[in-house]
Amino acid sequence: MLKLVIGNKNYSSWSMRPWLALRVNNIPFEEVFIPLYTNDKADKDRILSFSDSGKVPTLIDGHVTVWDSLAIIEYLAEKYPQAKLWPEDRARRAHARSISAEMHSGFMALRNECGMNLHRPIGAVDLSDDARANVARIQEIWSDCNRCNGKDGPFLFGTFGGADAMFAPVVHRFRTYAIEVEGEARHYFDAMMSLPAFQEWTRAGLAETLVIDRFETV
Which segments constitute the GST N-terminal domain (predicted)? Predict the structure, then answer.
């Protein structure tokens, strides 16, 4: 059985991404939880025992080790083609990979100013111009996908796929920091919030009791 090594569900946006890709598609896996930022050498050593990167998430498939959220999603897409994590049409697949890569490497202002923290009471913060530009770009992506693919379903390319897994933590950030989502983008936001696997992750994150002070400053 696959093993997915993850961090705290309350905080670890990167862990959430491949976890959702697996859970939504009913792919069996063993979840290995290692608490992050505890300053406990044993915790760090446990992560290193799975991946030399020293980071989560990490996927273990027999003798194969894959780290980094997007790399894991790519691996799952190849191993489980029936899950259709990427669209079958070449142009749509290129679009899905492009926005996933943009999510993977971009939106740093929003990440820094609105860290993932499910426990945080819902409330707005003053965003920088760069963060507001990030918010606008994300909603532009969601709206564009809804216009192009909404007839096939409520997610970015109709049915849930790899791109949705990549954007899922942003949905939480928008909710937590009371960022208004309007128009066609709202259809996508509501669909993600209603997704059973998304709700399952959220419940588990809210049930966690470990507090990481460095993430409680916003």
Answer: 2-84
CA 135/CA 152 separation, integer angstroms: 25
CA angle, 147 as apex, 14 and 75 as ends, to 5°?
A: 30
Domains of the chain: 2-83 (3.40.30.10), 90-201 (1.20.1050.10)
In the predicted model, is pLDDT for residue 218 greater than 80? no
| Burial letters 127-149, b for 16+ CB under 10 A, else e | beeebeebbeebbebbbebbeeb
Tell me the two tokens of residue 69: 């959220």
Residue 183's φ and ψ, nearest 5 degrees, are 60, -140
pLDDT, tens digit, 9 for 90 and up, residues 124-156: 999 999 999 999 999 999 999 999 999 999 999
The pTM assigned to this predicted structure is: 0.94
- Please tell me the distance from the alpha carbon of residue 92 to that of residue 90, in angstroms, as a whole number: 6
